[in-house]
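Example 9 (inverse folding). The structure is encoded as follows.
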């Protein structure tokens, strides 16, 4: 079977330092239903950043020969927290538009802030307490 788009026509784009695509392929699997082509882009993402990453997601963006955007497939891939050293397998159903010449496999994420909502609240309470103590000793 010939894939709807050749892997050589897919460019890998990663916008998060330390997020690695360990391997990826375009392959055919048994279709789930009659609307399913059975073609998938499957990949393993790995966090080599040394820190927890958040909001990791990816999609496949399609373009024509003139580099005009034709659409995308995202496969509902979303990883809220990805610990350092962890890997995740992803699979995106391919619905390649007519006139597709090339595509971009885009992978995004961001480093998790060391201050989540709970620690920010605790820090705020501590600072207010210190201000209260200092203010009462100064007056």
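The amino acid assigned to each position is listed next.
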């Amino acid at each position: 079977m010939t894939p709807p788009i050749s892997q050589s026509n897919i460019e890998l784009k990663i916008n998060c330092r330390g997020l690695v695509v360990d391997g990826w392929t375009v392959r055919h699997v048994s279709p789930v239903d009659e609307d399913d082509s059975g073609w998938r882009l499957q990949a393993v993402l790995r966090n080599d950043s040394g820190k927890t990453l958040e909001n990791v997601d990816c999609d496949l963006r399609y373009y024509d020969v003139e580099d005009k955007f034709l659409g995308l497939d995202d496969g509902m891939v979303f990883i809220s927290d990805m610990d350092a050293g962890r890997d995740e397998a992803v699979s995106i159903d391919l619905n390649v538009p007519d006139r597709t010449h090339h595509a971009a496999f885009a992978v995004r994420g961001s480093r998790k802030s060391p201050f989540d909502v709970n620690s920010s609240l605790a820090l705020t309470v501590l600072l207010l307490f210190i201000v209260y103590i200092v203010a009462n000793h100064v007056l």
